[in-house]
Amino acid sequence: MSDPRYLETLYPSYGQQFEMEEVLFRAPTEHQELIIFKNQRFGRVMALDGVIQTTEVDEFIYHEMLTHVPLLAHGSAKRVLIIGGGDGGILREVLRHDAVEQVTQVEIDAQVIEMCKQFLPNHSAGAFEDPRVNIVIDDGKAFVMNCTEKFDVIISDCTDPIGPGEALFESDFYRGCKQCLNEGGIFVAQNGVPFMQPDEAETTKARLQPFFADRTFYCAAVPTYIGGIMSLAWASDDAGLRQHSTEVIAERFARAGFKTRYYNPAIHTGAFALPQYLVDRLAKID
Ligand code: SAM
């Protein structure tokens, strides 16, 4: 009888484990080791290369925060680029904005999309079939380095900088994202748990510096991204985009006309307040 537990291997000397009630899919894809299993507390769970990516029970936190903060801060985004995001959660949240006219999603691993559609259907909830969506199977870095299209918001919903995800933390990727952004555009990205991966925040801020005038992070507390708050990278050329009042965001959120379970205007503006240990580390980077 194989071990009914899934041990996350993101950190060598510390980690979380999940009782696997049922393994729904487990196989290497062209790019990474993919598993989707059922857990009594977190529902269906997906992991790639030993790292928990998303769970049915807490996915709304991360997907709402990585989507609605940039889109409501921008205020009039029509064209959105998603890098990664194979489970479809970000795409689902982006499409809730009726003002968004076109979404391109660049995912390196077609099998992640296919298996998540089949075994994690509530994440995408039909989003991949929306007429506004264009799915591209490609490396996100190669795509943005060669892309001639322009977008208002770019969301990098990437894995950790391990395996194929490493490319999405490199300077060429950030350079490519900048050249794909319209005037007034916003770039956001998954950037790890700073208490556990502090170098990631410093490296990202330094690598964004040549391309964006304003670089910082905002936070969300996602239970299955263990070790503390999750940092989300933020970059644009106008610091004012992240400094709207809670009242302005509340007006835009009301106009957007949908309900959320974690995101709200006060969390939006408060999420940019960073813990002092992170402020101190980032202060070393101009
Ligand atoms: N929410 C998760 C997190 O915070 O770690 C990320 C979820 S999503 C499943 C990550 C996606 O990034 C996966 O579908 C993976 O295949 C994709 N990915 C990894 N490297 C990529 C690359 N270079 N280009 C495009 N997609 C990539």
Automatic annotation (TrEMBL):
The active site is at D157 (proton acceptor). Spermidine binds at H63, D87, D157, C158, T159, D160. S-methyl-5'-thioadenosine binds at Q32, E107, D139, G140, P164. InterPro entries: PABS, PABS_CS, SAM-dependent_MTases_sf, Spermi_synthase, Spermidine_synt_N, Spermidine_synt_N_sf. Keywords: Polyamine biosynthesis, Spermidine biosynthesis, Transferase. It catalyses: S-adenosyl 3-(methylsulfanyl)propylamine + putrescine = S-methyl-5'-thioadenosine + spermidine + H(+). Homodimer or homotetramer. Belongs to the spermidine/spermine synthase family. This is Polyamine aminopropyltransferase.
